Amino acid sequence: MSKIILKAGEGKRIKSGHKWIFSNEIKSAEGHFALGDISSLYDNNNVFIGKGFYNPHSLISFRLLTLTDEDINIPFWHKRIEKAKTLRDKIYPNENSYRAVFGESDDLAGIVIDKYGDALCAQFLSAGAQAHKADILTAATAVFEPKGIFVRNDSRLRQLENADLKKENEIFYGEIPKDIIIFENGLKFYADIISGQKTGWYFDQRDNRAKLASYVKNKKVLDCYCHTGAFGIYAKNAGAQEVVFVDSSRRALEIAEKNYALNGFKNFNAIEADALEYLQSKEAKDENFDIVNIDPPGLIKSKKDFHAGFKHYVKINEAAICLLKSGGMLATSSCSRHLDFKSFVDAVCQAAVKTKKENALETLLLEYGFQAKDHPILSSMPETQYLNFAIAVVK
């Protein structure tokens, strides 16, 4: 087993609950290791800190798994996954589909597992997690007893490992149904874990969809960047008078329409268009919406993209606010980890000012939200908080 030794003065952050060591914090790596092996971490005084994945090719060189000198084997993975399942059973006792493992927040660095009823979909985002895939999924099979496990290793985050981690989408175990239907807060949705975005469904907006649904009764709602329609379908189920779905992807709108019909609704109203272009169009301005929901894709992929991405968020929110009638409501999201909560709120406030609408300066922020509870935020690791959500009313 290799031995990773930190520079003098380093290690305070990881001893305080963070899970990563960066390459510039390491003094030396001793012993023989293969990429993805478990390594032991020591401080500059040769005091043991913990064990984890070591990757000399990545900026995140060490990912902590445990502060104990214990074996990392199938029983270890089983114990950690069982603990994650216990938490989900507590927070979502009546749901059978959710994010079952959320990486570092569940002490399972670089590992994501989503549960879709009797099927699991897994992602391995680090070289270390990839190297231990078989043992991890063997443990997951014992904990969840799924009928099938699909591996979705096409995330761009794997590229940051600089370890030639190839795209790898495969059935690891059992069978994966062509049409998976999940239940969420009493609603039904199709989930495509084989070729859909991410692992096939955005569980992270579950709680925010429910928040918005409480305001929509008898309202005219615009769901922009609607993807497969979840926000709008929640709204329709909660009594919205009308919902207009907008997305640039025809395939996404086709699935949204299937989801709409799956829940017993008729007269699906969809517009295939770039969301920002539609928000700025005369057609949209003539609609007089009560509520506009915007859930754009991540616009800030790295710190260097912050300025341009922030301006784009302001522009999208400005366009959305311009469509609202007096007293209308904006629901807005950002899934860019590099847009912190304060900057997210600042973007919404700047957007309101730029509209120059009467009373826009008196925009009231009614609710905030983050990612759903099955994506828990590790308090000692701000990187685990990436989704911001707000509901505002423009007087």
Written overview of the protein:
The protein is of the alpha/beta class. It folds into three domains: 3-66, Archaeosine Trna-guanine Transglycosylase, Chain: A, domain 4, CATH 2.30.130.10; 74-180, Transcription Regulator spoIIAA; 202-393, Vaccinia Virus protein VP39 (Rossmann fold), CATH 3.40.50.150. The protein has eleven helices and 20 strands. The strands form four sheets. The protein has a seven-stranded mixed sheet with strand order 16-15-14-17-18-20-19, with helices on both faces. It is globular. The mean pLDDT is 93.
Total count of strands: 20
Strand order of the largest sheet: 16-15-14-17-18-20-19
- The total count of helices amounts to 11
Assess the beta-strand content as a share of residues.
25-35%
The quaternary state of the protein chains shown equals single chain
Write the layout of secondary structure elements.
Elements: E1 3-6, H1 12-15, E2 20-22, E3 26-30, E4 38-42, E5 48-54, E6 60-66, H2 74-91, E7 97-102, E8 111-116, E9 119-124, H3 127-131, H4 133-144, E10 148-153, E11 168-174, E12 180-184, E13 187-191, H5 206-213, E14 220-224, H6 230-237, E15 242-247, H7 250-262, E16 270-272, H8 275-279, H9 282-285, E17 289-294, H10 306-322, E18 324-334, H11 341-355, E19 364-369, E20 388-393
Parallel strand pairs: 1-4, 9-10, 14-15, 14-17, 15-16, 17-18
Antiparallel strand pairs: 1-3, 2-6, 4-5, 5-6, 7-8, 8-9, 10-11, 12-13, 18-20, 19-20
Helix pairs in contact: 2-4, 5-6, 10-11
